[in-house]
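#structure-requests
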Amino acid sequence: MNDKKVLIDTSIWIDYFKNKSPILSEKVDKILSEDEVYVPKIVIAELIQGAKSEKEISIIEDFIDAFNIIDQKEDSWLKAGKLSYNLKKKGETINLIDCYIAVIAQEHNCQIFTLDKHFKEIQKVTKIHFL
């Protein structure tokens, strides 16, 4: 196992669970076997929000136990708000949840694995790393 800490974003999990891309699924499987996987509580909430059945919710709840579930620090939301503000000053409107996930990744020294293009815009104003 590597020392790499990877925060897997909602967009990846959705594609992975729906098995939309065999290449993506292989990459996730490799990360799951080789790296430390971190999942913010907000990502769990987004997955449950998008569930189509009680069975899917049950699968998500079981899946939680397999990973390092991370949450905010005392000033995480403040940092996310400031990040959103700084992006807005540059003409970029990025949803607050993505800003929050970027902050959480920074706080836990995680690389972000995502399909969400908003994170490239976030990277223009703050230091985040991608897998």
